[in-house]
Amino acid sequence: MNVEVELSRIIIDEASDQQVIVLKEKNGQRNLPIVIGIVEIMAIERRLKKMVTLRPLTHDLLDNVIDSLGAKIEKIVVNDIQNHTYYATIYLSVDGKKFEVDSRPSDAIALAVAWPVPLYVAEHVFNNG
User: Fold this and answer.
1) At a CB cut-off of 8 Å and minimum separation 6, what does 108 contact?
2) 5 to each of 75, 94, 97, 104, how far by Cα in Å?
3) Distance between CA atoms of 72 and 36, rounded to whole angstroms?
4) Is the pLDDT of residue 83 over 80?
5) Is the confidence at residue 59, as pLDDT, over 90?
6) Residue 75: strand, helix, or coil
7) Which residue from 92, 116, 89 is spatially nearest to 2, judged by alpha carbons?
8) Number of C-alpha atoms within 13 angstroms, CB side, residue 66?
9) What are phi and psi of 113, to 5 degrees?
10) How far apart are CA 33 and CA 31, in angstroms?
11) Domains of the chain (ranges plus CATH)?
12) pLDDT band at 86, cuts 50/70/90?
């Protein structure tokens, strides 16, 4: 079972290699902190603030590819944790076909903040994270 969440907080500490994003259960009290890198958290923050760069960065490129293919992001699921590493899947649809793309949660969330995309965490990830 998947639990719908939202990006609740981003915690940036430029003096550290480890940054934190916090996903909060939409209809509950649980939070899931995920440690990510400085580059990834800066990409998420930039996209949240709708900051524009002169040339497309990686997540902008992915947006452009998805859009150019006529695809749509249906949802993103943080679906596993193994050895303290989180895994996510981006669910895409194009012309009635469904695709699942393996992703780091930070990259999937960076895409999600620019699109109106539902974000989920698998129940067992909440229980083991």
Assistant:
1) 76, 78, 88, 89, 90
2) 11, 25, 25, 17
3) 25
4) yes
5) no
6) strand
7) 89
8) 22
9) -70, -15
10) 6
11) 2-128 (3.10.690.10)
12) very high
- What pLDDT, on the 0 to 100 scale, is given for residue 15? 83
| Segment 89-95 mean pLDDT | 97
State the pTM of this model. Answer: 0.91
- For 37, 104, 123, 126, 129, the CA distances from 30, given in Å and listed in that order, are 23, 21, 11, 8, 11
Question: Phi and psi for 45 in degrees, rounded to 5?
Answer: -60, -45
* Whole-number Cα distances in Å, 45 to 49, 51, 60, 125: 6, 9, 13, 24
Instruction: Count the residues in the chain.
Output: 129
Cα–Cα distance measured from residue 91 to residue 12, given in angstroms and rounded to the nearest whole number: 28
The per-residue pLDDT for 16 is 81
76 within 8 A of 88, measured Cβ to Cβ: yes
